[in-house]
Design brief:
3-stranded antiparallel β-sheet, elongated, 73 residues
Length: 73
């Protein structure tokens, strides 16, 4: 099961956000309330950009080729 990062949604100006991790099935919907306090929360997208994002980033920073000999230029 993957671990997802959530953060609280501040209800008042100046209130800090709090982040926490939660293991959930990929089939489970994202939570909208903290399981203990009931405070509103949102899931934070964290992770890689995938193959397309990685190759386009590499090609833009190295003049059109990722530099690994893969022929992506």
């Amino acid at each position: 099961m993957p671990t997802y990062v959530y953060e609280t949604i501040p209800q008042f100006e100046g209130e800090p956000t709090k982040r926490f991790e939660l293991r959930q099935s990929m089939k489970d919907a994202a939570l909208t309330q903290h399981p203990d306090s009931g405070q509103p929360i949102r899931r934070i997208p964290i992770g890689g950009t995938g193959l397309m994002g990685a190759s386009s980033t590499a090609s833009s920073s190295s003049g059109g080729s990722c530099g690994t000999g893969c022929g992506c230029h």
